[in-house]
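## retry 2 of 3
previous attempt timed out at serialization; input unchanged, resubmitting
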Amino acid sequence: MPQMNKGGKFIFGKSAVGKDGLVRLPPQAVEEYRIASEGKVYLFTGSLSTGGFCVTRRGLLEPSRLGHILTENPGLLDCALPQGAFQKYKGRWYCWTDISEAGTIVLTGSMMDVLKLSPGDELLSIRSSDIAFTMGAKGPLLERARNYEGDIPVF
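## retry succeeded, writing output
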């Protein structure tokens, strides 16, 4: 699905947090960001208004203007922190986790606690930048998507 309104954010689709914490990332986002190509992804807390989490990978984040997140947090850079263990840095929480080739991740209970998510929560996949996409859990964009009369792919 493209933009819900002219000049608005591009929406890849909707996903839900499964009972087991499984989240299927929309195939278009997986392909566009080549997000599964490294077998691991970084998750970080979303904005106050959107909630949820952002998804990126080392090959996108490290060479970007935000690469300092990794260089100043070597446990993230080298995935030396335990999988799913969040680390706070400059007001946001960051972790790494495995991703399947098909673009699925599993959020543990402790990860969901940090992200303020629960099984069954609906997530709207939003193109954020060329570095990451957002799996938003609240806010005006999610409300507009709920009221949108067109088709929004569900994963």
